[in-house]
């Protein structure tokens, strides 16, 4: 599922809040905040896409994410690797480690993570 930037931003707030009423979502935005009507439109679009759900309490709705942040991020991250790095994680890793100016501690931490994954897969 691809979300426009405005919908993705709302999802970021909802992932952080987990469950939220319209008031909570509006308050999660930095100033200048979008109008409540704009947020209501985004919520409706996200409902139609199956990204969020809601529970009704009288006339008030409590919204919650259905689309998991990890699943959304994973799809987009894999798309970046495919589109920009010829579907090569190694090319991405090379780019990432050289462009981010990682210090020795950060590089060693990445190395530890990779070695841990290798051990886990051997089991």
Description of the structure:
The protein has 123 residues and is mainly alpha-helical. Helices cover 64% and strands 11% of the residues. Strands 1-3-2 form a 3-stranded antiparallel sheet. It is elongated and about 55 Å long. The two termini are 34 Å apart.
Distance between the termini: 34 Å
Relative strand content: 5-15%
Mean pLDDT: 92
Strand order of the largest sheet: 1-3-2
The description of the largest β-sheet is: 3 strands, antiparallel
Tally of extended strands?
3
Return the structural class.
mainly alpha
Number of helical segments with 4 or more residues? 6
Question: What key phrases describe this protein's structure?
Answer:
123 residues; mainly alpha; elongated
Topology at a glance:
Layout: H1 5-17, E1 20-21, H2 22-28, H3 36-48, E2 52-57, E3 60-65, H4 69-84, H5 89-99, H6 104-122
Antiparallel strand pairs: 1-3, 2-3
């Amino acid at each position: 599922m691809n979300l426009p930037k405005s919908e993705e931003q709302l999802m970021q707030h909802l992932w952080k809040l987990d469950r939220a009423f319209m008031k909570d979502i509006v308050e999660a935005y930095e100033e200048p905040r979008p109008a409540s009507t704009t947020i209501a439109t985004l919520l409706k679009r996200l409902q139609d896409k199956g990204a969020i759900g809601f529970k009704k309490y009288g006339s008030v709705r409590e919204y919650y994410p259905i689309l998991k942040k990890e699943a959304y991020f994973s799809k987009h991250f894999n798309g970046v690797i495919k589109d920009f790095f010829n579907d090569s994680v190694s090319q991405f890793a090379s780019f990432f480690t050289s462009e981010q100016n990682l210090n020795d501690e950060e590089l060693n931490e990445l190395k530890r993570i990779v070695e841990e994954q290798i051990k886990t897969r051997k089991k």
